[in-house]
Amino acid sequence: YPDAGQVEIYKSSQLLINAGFGDRWGSSQQDTAPYYNTFSFEKRTDGGPNGQQWFATAGCPTPTGSDPVGLKKFADGNDYVFAAGEFSAAYQSSCSASGVPANFVVRNQLYVRPDLVFLYDQVSVKNGVPTEHFHFPNQPTANGSNQWTVVNGSGQLQMAAIYPAVTASVTAQAVNSLKYSDGSMGPQVSSYHMTMTANTQNSYQSFS
């Protein structure tokens, strides 16, 4: 699935959710990058898709080297867990340097037990506007500048975009009532979709 960089948070209940759904042999479905908690590259001018490919470029090297995408670092220090992954090739149409929106796309995740999560994203932009997507089971409540709270039952997620200054918007996303190719119903997922873009587009970095 085109979900490289996807991250979810479950604490007492679902808080940051996977809103994507895909049955490869079905019809049009919610199976592109904007339905997962990852990046898309909007307003591309090189003819490439805004989201990720299915799987054809999963083994491609990065445009600036020979290191393929994947998990680059993992450490479990008992009171913390850290992971870093690179997934620029997920946005390539082929294993070449052309039609590539970024030289690298790196997501760093730090979980400090029991309840702190940090995301630090790094993107070397070549084409398009890197846009982060987040999906929640209930509507986020704004608590100030670039701060939100999501409540789902006994679970609560407090979220803040620390750096850089961003523009964020939230829209309700329709219930996913699509079917598998055998006619059975897929997961009934409804969500609130947040998009986030940096106000200054240089070499993109986001800390939240």
Query: Which regions are unreliable across 5 or more consecutive residues at pLDDT < 50?
Result: 24-28
SSE string? EEEEEEEEEEEEEE
Q: What is the gyration radius calculated from CA atoms?
A: 17 Å
Summed up, the helix count is: 0
> How many strand segments?
14
Q: Strand pairing plus helix content: what structural class?
A: mainly beta
Q: What gross morphology would you assign?
A: globular
Q: Level of helix content? A: under 10%
**Strand order of the biggest β-sheet:** 4-5-6-7-14
- What is the arithmetic mean of pLDDT? 80
Distance between the termini: 25 Å
Strand content: over 45%
What does the main sheet amount to? 5 strands, antiparallel
Protein model, in words:
This protein has 208 residues and is mostly beta strands. Helices cover 0% and strands 46% of the residues. It is built from no helices and 14 strands. The chain has strands at residues 9-11, 13-16, 39-42, 70-76, 80-86, 102-112, 116-125, 129-136, 141-144, 147-152, 155-160, 166-176, 189-198, 204-207. It has a five-stranded antiparallel β-sheet with strand order 4-5-6-7-14, with no helix packed on it. The chain is globular, with a radius of gyration of 17 Å. The chain starts with 8 loop residues before the first strand and ends with a strand. Residues 24-28 have low confidence and may be disordered.
In short:
With 208 residues, the protein is an all-beta fold. Helix content is 0%, strand content 46%.
